[in-house]
């Protein structure tokens, strides 16, 4: 049983422009399951330097970092670990006795998920934002040599493609058919204008072998639903968000929960 909150309770937190419930529900569920004297709370801030300083000064054990703070926090911490250095983006800060280390568990989670995919697979990825950078870097570092970045924002899309050695196209067309389709845009996301839209046409889904959608809410996006209906293998945004949150939990606590505990925490967090 988890001890009651007291003077020895360790605080973990998140910083985001628009805090959500997933991290709090996932982490606190596992603290309870493993009887750990930790508590997790989501925050936002308009003063990032003060917030990061508070992590150090108050002994906050760990902090998840979301947009728009993933790059802005880098000058405020002490060192970048390889997962964050690979993409110059931090989504996790771990405080070891006042030394703030930056990690990127999004990148690490995608690398783990791609380990089950043949790197000879040709991919088309749609998107050019911060998460796209993590996914593209993971693809490159996992040995995927043949791919195209599709992004209407030419400056961002072309820069992303060139930085990691891929081609860029402004729009998807039939010439870009690939074995793996990757959506890293808000298409299909709950609350997005295009929430019912597919990131790729049905014909492209039919030709693909694997469909990867990083959108986590809902777990079954229109793209994932269409891919399952076509009999395709899928990697979901829920897979990513759970795995990256698990990586954070292990970094904070140095404890590895069991598979059943992780599944229960994920189901609880995704339901909230």
Sheet with the most strands, sense and barrel status? 6 strands, mixed
Count all strands and give the number.
12
Any idea what the shape is? globular
- The N- to C-terminal Cα distance equals 23 Å
Task: Write up this protein.
With 272 residues, this protein is of the alpha/beta class. It has 2 domains: 10-103 and 240-270, 3-Layer(aba) Sandwich (Rossmann fold), CATH 3.40.50; 108-235, NAD(P)-binding Rossmann-like Domain (Rossmann fold, 3-Layer(aba) Sandwich). Helices cover 38% and strands 18% of the residues. It is built from 10 helices and 12 strands. It has helices spanning 22-34, 48-58, 82-85, 105-114, 130-141, 154-164, 202-207, 222-229, 237-253, 259-270; strands spanning 10-15, 38-43, 62-65, 79-80, 92-96, 99-103, 123-126, 147-150, 167-169, 180-183, 210-213, 233-235. The chain has a 6-stranded mixed beta sheet, sandwiched between helices. The protein has a 6-stranded parallel beta sheet with strand order 9-8-7-10-11-12, sandwiched between helices. Strand 5 and strand 6 (99-103) form a beta hairpin. The radius of gyration is 19 Å and the shape is globular. The two termini are 23 Å apart. The model has no long low-confidence stretch (mean pLDDT 95).
